[in-house]
Amino acid sequence: MTDIPVASTGEAAREETLQIAPNPPRRALSLHRELHSVWSNDPGWRGQITAVNHTTLGLRFMCTALFFFAVGGILSMLIRAQLATPEGAFLDTELYNQIFTMHGSIMMFLFAIPMLEGLAIYMLPKLLGTRDMAFPRLTALGYWCYLFGGLILLFALLGGVAPRDGWFMYTPLSGATYSPGINADVWLLGVTFVEISALAAAVEITVTILRQRAPGMKLTEMPLFAWYILGTSAMMLVGFPPLILGSVLLEIERAFDWPFFDVARGGDPLLWQHLFWLFGHPEVYIIFLPAAGAISTIIPVMCRTTILGYGAIVAAVVALVFLSFGLWVHHMFTVGIPHMALAFFSAASVLVAVPTAVQVFAWIGTMWKGRPEMHLPMLHIMGFFLTFVMGGLTGVMLAIVPFNWQAHDTAFVTAHLHYVLIGGFVFPMMAAAAYWMPQITGRARISGLGEAAFWTILIGFHGTFFLMHLTGLMGMPRRIDVYPDNPEWIWLNLTSSVFGFVMTIGFALFALDLFLQARLGPKTERNPWRAPGLDWAMPLPAPSYNFASLPGPRQLAGGAAAMLSMARGEGLLPGASRGRRELLVTETGSARPEHVAILPGNSDLPLRLSASIGLFVLLMLAGLYWLTLPALALVAVLIWRWGRGMAWGADQPAVQVAPGLTLPTQVHRRDTLGRTGVICLLVANGTLFASLLFGVGFLSVVAPGWPAPAPTGPEGLGAGLIAGAVAGLIGGSIAVRLAERRQVNGQDVAGPVWKGLIGNGAALLCLAALALLVLDDPTRHARDALRGVMAGYVGLHALIVTVMTAFALDQNRRAEITAHRAGSLPAWRLWQDFSVVIALILGAVAIMQGAGG
Amino acid sequence: MVPVLLAGCDGPLSTLTPAGPIAAEIAWLWWAMLAGAAAITLLVGVLILMGFGPPRERSARHWTHGWGLGFSLVVLSIVLAGGLWVGERTLPRADGAVEVRAHAYQWGWRFTQPGAGGAIVETEGTLYIPAGRPVNVIVTAEDVIHAFWVPQLAGKVDAIPGRENMLRLQADAPGIHAGLCAEFCGLGHAGMRFDVVAYAEGDLPDALMPSPNTPAAEEATDD
Q1: Closest Cα partner for A360 from A281, A421, A299?
Q2: Which domains does chain B have, with CATH numbers?
Q3: Shortest CB distance from A475 goes to which of B11, B52, B86?
Q4: DSSP E strands: which ranges in chain B?
Q5: Nearest residue on chain A to B149, alpha-carbon basis
Q6: What is the DSSP letter of A540?
Q7: The predicted structure's pLDDT at residue A6
Q8: Rounded to whole angstroms, how far apart are CA atoms A243 and A430?
Q9: DSSP β-ladder status, B98-105 and B135-141
Q10: What angle do CA A240, A242, A247 make, to 5 degrees?
Q11: Cβ-Cβ contacts under 8 Å, B46 against chain A
Q12: What is the DSSP string of A646-659?
């Protein structure tokens, strides 16, 4: 194989704009020892609990996701066993309903999403030329939330109380009347618990890509995989909040009888469907994009060339991100929406095929340009092409409204979605596994087994799902367990079941192949594919710190060939002589080095925090609602301690990154990684807020059962309390600005911070009074329930900024806020301003609805 | 050609053996889309296989703009236009069509339809419609969401608590057509079947006659 040239665009320009002298070479081994002692996990079992390293956690995410894939696969075999005969007595209906609900939920929430998070967490720092993700403790928190949430769902399945209303959980079937018992609560609470990890991953992935690229790696020149993952994380930030809101509302309805989805009291079951599919459709692209990123990485390497149409692919990714939020209604074509609106969403759904086609043809063009070699990763990509093209085409068919009316909720859709998800995610992930396993394990695979697994899976898959299109067109609906009156479906179902087991054998072979490679494979040569990326510019398996010195413009020009130069410390920020975890933070667009971030080390705080959230979830499940308050208090205390971990009590000297390049640490910078992280979190929060406004508007305008009964609260008092709360929060907003001005001038900030505390505390009191004295019983009507939620949402923010004010006060007392250290002030300011905006808007909405009476 | 293909696609619930003009339009739409999809799959397959030949230079725009944008936009526009055309023709409209009601509950169907002399007759599990005439079905639900579907006559529409949805059916000839609930609705979902009896105009079935004791056709329900 020949080496692949590193993308040549803009190299000369890069040299012009960014000149950084090399560090003097050192002995690679001593550098390794120095870094390893700082970056490695704690020894022994404790190391498993306190690990925050992205390599460890990325692998752990992926292994856990594979475990859940196996569980979901076993469930699918139970489904196929039941359907093999028309009157299968293998499962009773109750159990069957639990099993297909859990199959879908596990594959979506416990396999696909965590798998792509794991891949991104493992790969990104290596591809971007940095040493870890932006928030290592958050990585660990995400993992534990995923694990505990997944275990709750798994134990519910073993205990026979698993969710049984379908993975889409449509109301009113999933409401308290028609689904008594904790089954539905397990889904709502367990999945929301797991989603914490999705949001955590989305925040830190976004920040890592925007701020931690190697100096000189401009946004417009970064590896395509990073573009795909950036698109994914942006979609996760915006896509998950609607589902989280829907889940919270439905859980409140189930637990406290607030009627958001109850038609008789002004609710509407369609609100759930909108919130669910506002998440659910982007979800499909959230799953597809990272897989497409792997394909865009692997195809050029397998074809000994560079990717064709970099700019067009980036444009396609961006187009997919936007378009995917405009077509959720195509899951709801049969709910009775006017035909003109259907035509719009039909067109949008069809249009989304265009950026996908651009990518497919760019990949084919890359193959034409190069000399494809049929290694195992390429074999899986062929499986991807065959399967995904067919799935995409049936997707276009389903976007056509009249055909959708026939095919919706039939086995045709089951076939389509498996073509898209297995074709568009599982085959690319298997290609990625074959491609990166040498990088991950440092071992070569045992030849033959992987090919056998591929062919078994390919034959098993198409044998199972190709005929299932016909099964659906012949009228078989989804989610039925028996079909005694339809002998014409027997041969189709039996065929699907037999090949389903073939596919399962294939996946078992695949797992065996991975296991044998990890355990017994011979040591691989360095960079076995002769790939150009930085992910291969390191010893194998990857060391805990990735790069002994970080790549600069010089190393970027060399790509994987720069490995020795970096290992000898000629790159930037070599070693760990200060005994702490350091990496470079760069400017978002130009990737000029900005400052040095000091990351936290190993910690068991993530485990403790997620365990206390888990305690809250379990108490909710047990119906011990009052006992959840101490659990929430525990969560708050641990979050406070988390924040304390980011506080600095002393100035930190600037760090020499390279000869002639000395950079400050984040302690003395305002635009830290943490601040970017807060902005990302507030983007997600803003989407949650927008979803809430959508819910208010939707129920007020569309739901039957309106207008709501007149409010009964005291006249005028409501408006006064709302005005008081808004005024208090605005006071906090002014206070934080005054505090920042005094901080920059080196003056004591205690005065304005105290005033902020009073303002925010007053807002909190006003909201409490509003809830106690003015608001009507939230169980009366959906309008009153929504007002309860709006007050609660503002109240939560008033509480958050009150605590942040207290935190700043505490920091000031400890002399952590000085002229050169802003401490928590920038983060507080962002939250405070966000709180003012939501309070203003929701206050206006409440007053328009008739505040007091 | 089509009858040969249909040999294995028969069955009381098959969308591929339509028994009315609406289902027939959708079936033709399907066959057309299938032919197009098969051709495109073949085309992409050939392009991929040709990629294994010696390196060939084509400009990036040839692929991303020519094939990616141009080709896909043309194909998609044709499909979309066809879909809109069929969709408009299958919509229920106020043109003097027969109006019947289908009310879904866990787990069965209650229908009301005009009987002898225009009197409204309520039945359980069987819907009676005149053959050869368009019928608007107003679909409602008692408890949770269900969906009304008679594959041989038309597409489906959801039955949602608090809402009235409308679907247009038409049967070409007298006969019995199977229907079912397509939206998952709990334990009895698989058994939530019903029949649609299309009768020749002027040959009113007994169930629609003003007989005092048997308003419903019980034998058609199964669970």
Answers
A1: A299
A2: 2-90 (no CATH), 98-220 (2.60.40.420)
A3: B11
A4: 98-105, 108-114, 120-124, 126-130, 135-141, 146-149, 156-159, 165-169, 175-181, 193-199
A5: A406
A6: S
A7: 57
A8: 29
A9: parallel
A10: 95
A11: none
A12: T--SS----EEEET
Work out the percent of chain B whose per-residue pLDDT is above 90: 79
Decide if A824 is inside a domain.
yes
ipTM metric: 0.93
Could B84 and A477 be called an inter-chain contact, meaning their C-beta atoms sit closer than 8 Å? no
Q: Which CATH number is A716's domain given?
A: 1.20.120.80
| pLDDT of amino acid B146 | 98
Lay out the sheet containing B98-105: strands in order across: B120-124, B108-114, B98-105, B135-141, B165-169
Claim: this prediction has a pTM higher than 0.90 = yes
Cβ-defined contact of B82 to A371 (cutoff 8 Å): no
Of B10, B64, B163, the CB nearest to A362: B64
Rounded to a whole number of angstroms, the distance between the first and last alpha carbons of chain B is 38
Domain count, chain A: 1
Question: Of all residues in chain A, what percent carry a pLDDT higher than 70?
Answer: 98
Whether B60 and A268 lie within 8 Å, measured CB to CB: no
List the single range of A20-34, A399-413, B1-15, B27-41 with lowest mean pLDDT: B1-15
With respect to residue A356, please indicate whether it lies within any of the assigned structural domains: no
Q: What is the C-alpha separation between A308 and B67, in angstroms, rounded?
A: 13
| pLDDT of amino acid B220 | 43
The 10s digit of each residue's pLDDT in B127-144 is: 999 999 999 999 999 999
Alpha-helix residue ranges (DSSP H) falling in A84-135: 93-105, 113-128
pLDDT band (50, 70, 90) for residue B215: very low
Q: What is the mean pLDDT of residues A741-754?
A: 96
Chain A and chain B share a number of CB contacts under 8 A equal to 259
Give the rounded percent of residues in chain A with a pLDDT score beyond 90.
92
What is the nearest CA distance from B122 to chain A, expressed in angstroms? Answer: 24
Q: Decide: A156 and A183 in contact? Cβ < 8 Å.
A: yes
A808 part of a folded domain: yes
pLDDT beyond 80 at B3: no
Q: Record the tokens describing residue A569, joined without a space.
A: 């410390």
Strand B126-130 relative to strand B193-199, pairing:
parallel
Min Cα distance B109 → chain A (Å) is 17
The yes-or-no verdict on residue A193 having pLDDT over 50 is yes
Residues with Cβ within 8 Å of A769's Cβ and at least 6 positions away in sequence, in order, are A721
- Say which of A166, A339, A404 has its CB closest to residue B91: A339
Task: Output the average pLDDT for chain A.
Answer: 95
Asked whether the beta carbons of residue A401 and residue B56 sit closer than 8 angstroms, the reply is no
pLDDT digits (tens, 9 = 90+) for A749-774: 999 999 999 999 999 999 999 999 99
One-letter identity of residue A564: L
Using the beta-carbon criterion (under 8 Å), do B41 and A364 form an inter-chain contact?
no
Residue A71 lies in a domain: no
For A725, the domain range is 707-848
Per-residue CA distances from A622 to A352, A615, A617 (Å): 44, 10, 9
* Distance to chain B for A132, nearest Cα, Å: 35
d(CA A265, CA A786): 12
Confidence of residue A529 (pLDDT cuts 50, 70, 90): very high
DSSP-assigned beta bridge partners for residue B110: B103, B124
Tokens 């007020």 correspond to A700
pLDDT band at B222 (very low <50, low <70, confident <90, very high): very low
Spell out which residues of chain A touch residue B33, defining contact as CB-CB under 8 Å: 396-397, 400, 403
Per-residue pLDDT reduced to its tens digit, A614-668: 999 999 999 999 999 999 999 999 999 999 999 999 999 999 999 999 999 999 9
The answer to whether A368 contacts B151, with C-beta atoms less than 8 Å apart, is no
* A782 min Cα distance to partner chain B (Å): 14
Write out the two tokens for A137: 């403790």
Contact A365 B63 (CB under 8 A): yes
